[in-house]
From TrEMBL:
InterPro entries: DnaJ_domain, DnaJ_domain_CS, DnaJ_subfamily_B/C, DUF1977_DnaJ-like, J_dom_sf. The keyword Transmembrane applies. Pfam families: DnaJ, DUF1977. This is J domain-containing protein. One of its GO terms (biological process) is cellular response to misfolded protein.
């Protein structure tokens, strides 16, 4: 008995699919079979639909039966609707989805991609990204090129949602890859201790914050001692701003920066040659300043990527946040 019920449900499913695709004869055949196997199934409404359609569209049984010589052409004619049905089912995206993908792929400027002005706020960027990402996400938009369009939208969001990268983009019109070759000549911002920036996250280390607060309270304002301590930094910046100067280091290995060094907190950076050790001995103030800048830069990269991952996780696009994990580990070192 259970076998008949399973066969009846299977026939009912086939009959419904045939009815949706417009094949009334096949639908009628399998629906009658389902009712015969299990009379309790709700099939009468479906059969009534077929009967009402039959009044407007005569079935093939009512048409004159062709002679044997006409059979090949009939087979070709009946095969055409099936092929059209297959094509329509394969096209699971709308014209609107195709147009929005093309429009995004055609645009290069991040503001144009998100449909924003240069004076937009971070909230505007987030709202626009949330709206566009739902329209072009590959899971929701099956149009060709949707994945590339989604990547463009995500890249624009990642750049414009961060104040620093947005400011650089406004100045240069070009995005800087997060793990970029950054010039060491960039002035170090005062007060950018990792603990202070990291405190906005729920997993910020309390010990690190206390140490930073104690250092801030003991500073007592600008004095002559502070000026003496800043002199090595100012000297390095002055040398780096000379026209012929190149970046002292990069965070990624690339020619000619192929010699790897590691800061006391485990951050790798790359310099041109071993001559760096002679110019900046490991116990010198200049070396300490450079490596502190390396760690600040590395922290900023992790923090930016962690923010991006947290937002994507909140919207259900990802589950893992590897950069946030790296940020936690980096905080524990301090």
């Amino acid at each position: 008995m259970d076998g008949n019920k399973d066969d009846a449900l299977k026939s009912l499913k086939i009959g419904k699919e045939a009815l949706e695709s417009g094949d009334r004869n096949r639908a009628l055949k399998f629906l009658n079979k389902a009712r015969r196997l299990d009379p309790t199934l709700p099939i009468d409404d479906l059969l009534s639909t077929i009967d009402s359609d039959a009044g407007d569209h005569p079935t093939a049984a009512a048409e004159p039966r062709p002679n044997q010589s006409d059979q090949p052409s009939i087979r070709r004619r009946t095969a055409a609707p099936a092929q059209g049905t297959s094509l329509s089912s394969a096209t699971s995206y709308s014209e609107e989805q195709v147009l929005i993908v093309r429009e995004i792929k055609r645009k290069k400027n991040y503001y144009d991609i998100l449909g924003l002005e240069k004076n937009c706020t971070v909230d505007d960027v987030r709202k626009s990204y949330r709206k566009l990402s739902l329209k072009v996400h590959p899971d929701k938009n099956k149009a060709p090129g949707a994945e590339e369009a989604f990547k463009s939208v995500s890249k624009a969001f990642q750049c414009l949602s961060n104040e620093e990268s947005k400011r650089k983009y406004d100045l240069s019109g070009e995005d800087e890859i997060v793990y970029e070759r950054r010039a060491a000549a960039r002035p170090a911002a005062r007060g950018m201790a990792p603990a202070a920036n990291f405190g906005g996250f729920s997993f910020g280390g309390p010990g690190m914050a206390r140490r930073q607060a104690a250092a801030d309270n003991g500073s007592g304002g600008f004095n002559f001692r502070a000026l003496i301590q800043l002199l090595p930094v100012l000297l390095i910046l002055l040398l780096n701003f000379l026209p012929s100067s190149d970046p002292v280091y990069t965070l990624q290995q690339n020619y000619p920066y192929e010699h790897r060094l590691t800061t006391p907190k485990g951050v790798n950076y790359y310099v041109k040659s071993t001559k760096f050790e002679e110019d900046y001995p490991s116990d010198s103030r200049e070396r300490v300043t450079i490596e502190e800048r390396v760690e600040r830069e590395y922290f900023g990269i992790l923090r930016q990527n962690c923010q991006f991952e947290i937002q994507r996780r909140q919207w259900g696009y990802i589950r893992e946040t590897p950069h946030c994990d790296m940020l936690r580990k980096f905080d524990l070192v301090h």
